[in-house]
Amino acid sequence: MAVWNGRFKKSLDEEALKFSSSIELDSRMYNEDIDGSISHVKMLAKQKIISVAESKKIIKAIEEIRKEIANGEYQIDWTKEDIHSAVEERLVRKIGDVGKKLHTARSRNDQVALDERLFLKKEINLTIKLISDLQKSLFKKAEKYKSVIVPGYTHLQRAQPILFAHHLIAYIEMLERDKERLKDCLKRGDKSPLGAAAFAGTSLPIDRNYTAELLGFSGIVDNSIDAVSSRDLIIEFISATSIIMMNLSRLSEEFILWSSSEFSFAQTDDAYATGSSLMPQKKNPDFAELIRGKSGRVFGALTGMLTLMKGLPLAYNRDMQEDKYHLITALDTTKDCLKIAANMIDHTEFKADRFEEELTGDLSLATDLLDYLVRKNVPFREAHHLVGKIVALCVERGIKLNQLELSEYKKFSSAFEKDLYSLLHPMSSIKKKISAGGASPKEVNRALRKWKRKLSSE
Ligand code: ARG
User: Fold this and answer.
1) Which atom of ligand 1 is the closest one to the Cα of 83?
2) What average pLDDT does the segment 430-444 reach?
3) Fumarate lyase N-terminal domain: from which residue to which, for each copy (predicted)?
4) Per the omega criterion (within 30 degrees of 0), is the bond before 315 cis?
5) Taking the mean position of all CA atoms in its chain, how far away is CA 61?
């Protein structure tokens, strides 16, 4: 029998109940639901709304229900509308009339808002931990390959040589901001909606601050209508996970490129690649592709959530029950992808000597020639133009910058001397990028030390 059946002469149509039940998803919040109920009952007793003996009886039975759900003795199924009514119904079956006092001065509207905040708090901390794990995996590779040279790109065209570690640390930095965004969510979510009741509060003498304190919140959501009507916190969380997935998708895209025969840079362990049912030679980077693909689910959840909320009048509307679908899609997908991304990196080695020779004398050192002329007092714009001409000549002849004779260089500018050839090695180019946060080994080593310190305490 539904928790609201008083004014109804019939029970809910079976199809309709199935359609409207949220239990498949909100049963994931059973622990939070029970924590909320226990604090609520303690408060009701403190405020003398129920007796201490009654509260003890309810708490004991509700703790039993927690165990029954955990060990599968109580199997929750779709015939219950949601986790809130399922727990209450079980309670009444266990202890009779006393159980009927649990929901005093409470509505499922403030209850669900509370469960979601508690659930988010737990899950955000787990997600942050997974991001740290991924950062650690990236860090290990950055350290291992710290003197490996790779081409850096803009427009996916070879731009300037860099250290592979520099590239990997860029992702570690992005992921750090992802953690900060999640921590920000935690800060804003640290208020209890419990006690807002249906939306207008209650005439019973409850103590909202007490339940907030028991549940570990720093305070209460001040406006009872806001407390039950708002889902911006969930939207904020899904936005943060969308940004995480966007970052993971970019990393995956690079993995896919690095795994191609054209790049021949990433060598993934067989345990983290798949084959083709037709082409026997194939070794495919499916896991990176799946992460890239699954980002769509999370972006979809964000759009779904914004669409869900945008036309809703205050206060509670049943539409809001759909929020759990989007929340859980975003959460599960992001957590899975973070785990798999870290494993994928752990299972991948890189060909350390892949690029060094290829980059010696490469056109991607043209900027070094430009800086050379600038240091010799040739105005920047002129130097840029001259080096551009030199590059065009090399392209025309199909040669590298270090294959062009000094006499030819001198035709472009008398400022060129023999020492220009010492510039035409990727490492000498990298060593010169001494600006803060730049490509030089000194700066990259400083970043490695910074991340070693930061990540070892997590
Ligand atoms: N299952 C509902 C949800 O997730 C709980 C709140 C229901 N409240 C109501 N008045 N029908 O939103």
Assistant:
1) 1
2) 97
3) 6-300
4) yes
5) 38
Whole-angstrom distance, CA of residue 147 vs CA of residue 134: 21
pTM score = 0.95
Output the pLDDT for position 39. Answer: 98
Q: Cα–Cα distance between 323 and 119 in angstroms, integer?
A: 13
Q: How far is the CA of 234 from the centre of ligand 1 (A)?
A: 16
Structure tokens at 310: 């945008």
Task: Tell me the pLDDT band of 276, cut-offs 50, 70 and 90.
Answer: confident
Q: Return the active site residues.
A: 155, 276
Are the CB atoms for 59 and 42 separated by under 8 Å? yes
Q: Is the distance from CB of 36 to CB of 110 less than 8 angstroms?
A: no
Contact criterion met (CB below 8 Å) for 83 and 23: yes
Lookup: tokens for 420? 């220009």
The full set of domains in the chain, from first to last, is 7-104 (1.10.275.10), 109-203+222-355 (1.20.200.10), 361-424 (1.10.40.30)
How many C-beta neighbours within 10 Å does residue 269 have? 12
Distance 71 CA to ligand 1 centre (A): 26
For 281-296, write each residue's pLDDT tens digit: 878 889 999 999 999 9
- Structure-token pair, residue 198: 């249906």
The alpha carbon of 10 and the centre of ligand 1 are apart by a number of angstroms equal to 20
Residue 350 parent element (H or E): strand 348-350
Label the pairing between strands 157-163 and 191-192. Answer: unpaired
Residue 135's CB is within 10 A of a number of other CB atoms, namely 26
- Strands 219-220 and 191-192 turn out to be parallel
Beta strand 266-268 with 348-350 is: antiparallel
Q: Is 96 helix (H, G, I), strand (E, B) or coil?
A: helix
User: Which atom of ligand 1 is found nearest the CA of 108?
Assistant: 6
